[in-house]
Amino acid sequence: MTEQSATASDSATAERDDEQRAVEEELVERVAASFAGTADPRLRQLMQSLVKYLHGFIREVRLTEAEWNTAITFLTECGRITDDTRQEFVLLSDVLGASMQTIAVNNQAYQGATEATVFGPFFVDDAPEIPCGGDIAGGATGQPCWIEGTVTDTDGRPVAGARIEVWECDEDGYYDVQYDDHRIAGRAHLYSDDNGRYRFWGLTPVPYPIPHDGPVGRMLEATGRSPVRAAHLHFMVSAPHQRTLVTHIFVAGDPQIDIGDSVFGVKDSLITRFDQQPAGTPTPDGRELTGRSWARADFDIVLAPEGT
User: Fold this and answer.
1) What is the pLDDT of residues 106-150, one digit of tens each?
2) 230 CB contacts (<8 Å, ≥6 apart)?
3) How many helices and strands, by DSSP H and E, does the chain display?
4) Is a pLDDT exceeding 70 seen at residue 72?
5) Taking a C-beta distance cutoff of 8 angstroms, is the pair 283, 289 a contact?
6) How far is the C-alpha of 108 from the C-alpha of 22, rounded, in Å?
7) Does residue 102 contact residue 147 with C-beta atoms inside 8 Å?
8) Cα separation of 201 and 102, whole Å?
9) pTM
10) Beta-carbon neighbour count of residue 75 at 10 Å?
11) N or C terminus of the chain with fewer C-beta within 10 Å?
């Protein structure tokens, strides 16, 4: 090929690229403009931005029609497996880090307030109430663990009457809702006392895999990622005039923290010591554990003001 013909070929290619780019950009503009009449300005912003970034992704990776079909099939399967006790779309959001990013955007750091982390798919409304010092296990198996702490505001004042929801898996890594017998175990709510103190018996957290027998699990397998979550105990804490906190505590020394939490939920400030107590060690409330070892953890909770 002569230099002149090569130059002509490069020019023709550039022209075709310009034409293709113009076609693609015109489509983006046309689709975004279709939402211009949306009455709700926030909805208009969301839809037009979604169009921009979705089309940008398609154009950047040059998405094939076969890949598009695979994505549609994947999302369809996520919908089919979702039911009252399993939310595959929440799992998808979690493993893509979208859940944690949303939490980061909506829970900005504020004067030492306890950091938030993922909600997860296993919260249940109307968990039973226990008194301070009660037991959330409800028959769930695992090592007994005494958890206590104080709820305060960011000025250090105790928050009395804070509602504290707690939930966790059993020693086999399953939440109660993953069983078929409608048990209620490993979850409860309680209230901080007049001094902002709380305490309860739970189970020493263990690592466990998120449900990975569905489309999200297959995606993780295809990409070489582990479905395992670092050991943790869920908290949701609410009180009048305070920002509701959704968080976990993680077990210091858990190897899974270094390997990686499958939903990116670990934060250094939430890693908590769970001190092992040999069998026969007196418990804080005099509970008799019949020769069993147990653990204890302290977790103080600081709530940010409402609206921050």
Assistant:
1) 988 899 999 999 998 889 999 999 999 999 999 999 999 999 999
2) 207, 250, 251, 254, 256, 257, 261, 265, 266
3) 7, 12
4) yes
5) yes
6) 40
7) no
8) 31
9) 0.87
10) 14
11) N
